[in-house]
Write a structure and sequence with these properties.
This protein is an alpha/beta fold. It has helices at 2-19, 24-38, 58-74, 87-93, 110-120, 134-142, 166-172, 183-191, 203-213, 221-225, 238-250, 267-277, 284-289, 308-311, 332-335, 351-358, 368-380, 382-399, 402-412; strands spanning 50-55, 79-84, 101-104, 124-128, 147-152, 177-180, 197-199, 229-236, 256-262, 281-283, 299-301, 317-320, 341-343, 362-364. The chain folds into 2 domains: 2-211 and 401-412, Rossmann fold; 215-399, Rossmann fold (3-Layer(aba) Sandwich), CATH 3.40.50.
Length: 414
């Protein structure tokens, strides 16, 4: 099976190169790794421990960051190496302070993995959530370098637990330790012979708690908000945007405004949203130029990245995108501010969403009729709004601490 994997991964990389000229993201992926191979890097002192974190993309980076910060506090002389699989993650974080070096993950090919390990000789590797690379892990095991999986979630329908997935399950058994988010994941692993498991929770919760504690304002937002109640739409897709447009068209609520931060911030999609909402909408870039223009607008369209997590403090209700499609986006960011959350029907893979729905702090909807009903209830019933917000805050408060548990266990192994 390992031999077949090595063949298939080479075919996969070949296909990426093949489509790169016509596919911008593939082109970035290829160019980034080619450029990296040409770079010469300063050698790390032999007496300095290298702690390697790998995040597939930005979401996984948010889970890694609390551990990185805490590790750097406890072991300030260690060298922090961070790798990304995706260009989007690498481009945004490559100059992040507090991380000694940010790079692309080498391709999962033996000679490239060996060159990378020879260069950095990591003390250990922490893989965030799911990004598992068999060639890399085999080489780490051969060199007796510990490797861990962090903030993982496992479900019975995953490949590891299929009758044809025994080889993938055997890879899990090679991990030095697996830190999982919930008891169900731990039980499933142990049932299948993976015993080096510890239930720690989700480090993202520590991350959003840190963000919520920061004291900051966002230029221009206060002038738009005024004394109005705010619905915050985060990482919205077309379905949520259609629902919100219809809701504001059908319900005349003079003291309610919308701050909309779409998942897709391409100029084409922003223009589509502008046409939907018409003259009631203003772009954030326009608001910065002339804050007074936002006073009589109902919708603020965020046309830049990097503000999403900071904007939730301005909201009373959050609408989070993704759960009508491939998967729900981050609902912990609004939850930490005690904001009730509305999202689509595909949320079962996300522990926090399941728990918030169970305690009536999160609301899953399948149709516009359900969406309108829940949104009106939260706007009109102060008790429902208060209790749902309280449920969000309690969930976050009761779920913090994953970072400390993981750091403690890692230091025990030092």
């Amino acid at each position: 099976m390992y031999f077949l994997y090595k063949i298939s991964i080479r075919i996969y990389y070949f296909l990426i190169r093949l489509i790169a000229p016509i596919h911008p993201r593939a082109e970035e992926w290829v160019k980034g790794r080619n450029d990296q191979q040409k770079e010469s890097f300063q050698k790390i002192p032999a007496d300095q421990s290298v702690i390697w974190f790998h995040a597939s993309s930005l979401g996984e980076f948010e889970q890694a960051l609390p551990i990185i910060k805490e590790w750097k506090t406890k072991k300030p002389d260690d060298f922090i190496l961070l790798t990304f699989y995706s260009p989007s993650g690498y481009k945004q974080i490559k100059n992040y302070s507090g991380i000694d070096r940010v790079m692309y993950l080498p391709r999962d090919i033996t000679n490239e993995v060996r060159i990378f390990l020879d260069q950095f000789n990591p003390d250990r590797l922490l893989l965030i959530k799911y990004d598992i690379w068999p060639v890399l892990l085999k080489e780490l095991a051969n060199r007796k370098i510990p490797f861990y999986l962090v903030s993982a979630v496992f479900r019975p329908n995953q490949l590891f637990f299929k009758w044809y997935g025994h080889w993938y399950l055997s890879i899990l058994k090679r991990f030095t330790g697996i830190f999982v988010q919930d008891q169900a994941s731990a039980q499933l692993l142990k049932k299948n012979g993976v015993n080096q498991v510890m239930i720690t929770g989700d480090t993202r919760i520590d991350r959003v708690a840190d963000l919520a504690s920061e004291n900051y304002t966002i230029e221009g937002i206060d002038s738009f908000v005024g004394d109005n109640r705010i619905i915050r739409a985060g990482s919205s897709w077309q379905k949520e945007e259609n629902f919100l447009n219809r809701f504001f068209s059908e319900n005349k609520l003079p003291d309610v405004k919308l701050i909309l931060a779409p998942h897709d911030v391409s100029s084409k999609h922003l223009t589509t949203i502008q046409k939907q909402f018409g003259s009631s909408l203003i772009f954030y870039s326009q608001l910065l130029t002339n804050p007074a223009t936002g006073l009589n607008k109902k919708v603020l369209l965020i046309d830049r990245i990097g503000l999403l997590s900071k904007l939730y403090r301005y909201g009373q209700i959050a609408v989070i995108g993704g759960a009508f499609g491939a998967g729900l986006h981050n609902i912990l960011e609004p939850a930490v501010f005690g904001i009730p959350i509305i999202f689509g029907p595909r949320f079962q893979k996300y522990i926090e969403a399941v728990e918030l729905v169970r305690c009536k702090a999160g609301f899953s909807v399948k149709s516009y009729e359900e969406f309108q009903s829940i949104l009106r209830l939260l706007l009109e019933d102060k008790n429902t709004l208060f209790n749902a917000g309280k449920g969000c805050r309690l969930y976050v408060d009761n779920s913090k601490g994953a970072t400390s548990l993981i750091i403690r266990r890692l230091l025990e192994k030092t």
